[in-house]
From TrEMBL:
Keyword DNA-binding: no
Keyword annotations from UniProtKB, A to Z: Iron, Iron-sulfur, Metal-binding
Protein's name in the database: 4Fe-4S binding protein
PROSITE patterns reported in the protein's UniProt record: 4FE4S_FER_1, 4FE4S_FER_2
Keyword match Signal: no
4Fe-4S ferredoxin-type domain location: 6-35, 36-64
């Protein structure tokens, strides 16, 4: 399964590396490196907290519940 079909994913562009998503993640699954947030799907529980926390609208979910899917 690629990132586009996963329930929560981070867009390749638009991230400013503010780490709000990293701080919001209760599972330690969100990592920000080089101004790009990435999800470790081995840890992600698809709670949507990161999508809610991101002020740039970079994190999306397949169902459009937490943030609009693009
Ligand atoms: S959906 Fe939840 S567990 Fe997954 S990366 Fe976002 S905050 Fe972390
Ligand atoms: S909250 Fe959004 S802009 Fe900030 S690091 Fe996470 S994905 Fe990037």
């Amino acid at each position: 399964m690629d990132d586009e079909t996963r329930r929560i994913w981070v867009a390749d562009t638009g991230c400013i590396g503010c780490r709000l998503c990293e701080r919001a993640c209760p599972a330690g699954a969100m990592r920000v490196e080089d101004r790009q947030a990435r999800i470790d799907y081995a840890l992600c529980i698809a709670c949507g907290m990161c999508a809610t926390a991101c002020r740039k609208g970079v994190i999306h979910d397949a169902l459009g519940i937490y943030a609009p899917a693009h």
